[in-house]
Amino acid sequence: MLAAGLAAAQPAGPADAATDAATDQPAQPVSLKLDARLGEERARVREGRPVFGRGDRLSGRTGRETTLDGDAEVRKAGTVIRADRLTYYEVDDEVVAVGDVRIAREGNVFTGPQLLLKLDANQGWFETPSYYLGQYGGRGRADRVDFLGHDLTRLYRATYTTCEPDNPDWLLVSETLTIDEAAGDGTGRSASLYFKGLKILGAPVFAFPLTDERRSGFLAPSVSINSRSGGEVVVPYYWNIAPNRDFTLYPGVSVRRGVQLGGELRYLEPTYFGGIRFDMNPSDPKTGSARYFYDLHNTFTNWNGWGGNWLVRGVSDDDYFIDYSRSILNSSQRVLPRQFNAARSLDGNWSMLFSVQTWQAILDARPGPYERVPQVQLRNVQRDVRGFDVDTLLDATRFGAPTAGMVEGWRLVANPHFSFPIVRPGWSIVPKASLHATSYELLDAGALPSSSSRVVPTWSIDSGMVFERPARFFGRDVTQTLEPRLFYVRTPYRDQSQYPVFDTTVADFNFAQLFSENTFIGNDRIADVDQLTAAAISRVIDPASGAERFRFALGQRLYFSKQRVAIPGIPPRTDERSDLLLAAAGELGGGMSFDTGLQYSVRDGDIPRFSALWRYLPDDGRILNLGLRYRRDELGQLDTSWRWPVAPRWVMLGRLNYSFLGTGVDPISQVPNERGVIEAVLGVEYSSCCWGTSFVLQRFRTAQGQSTTAFFLQLELKGLARIGSDPFGILRRNIPGYRLPHDRPELPSRYFGYE
Question: Which of 94, 158, 434, 636 could disulfide-link to 661, CB 3.0 to 4.6 Å?
Answer without folding.
Answer: 636
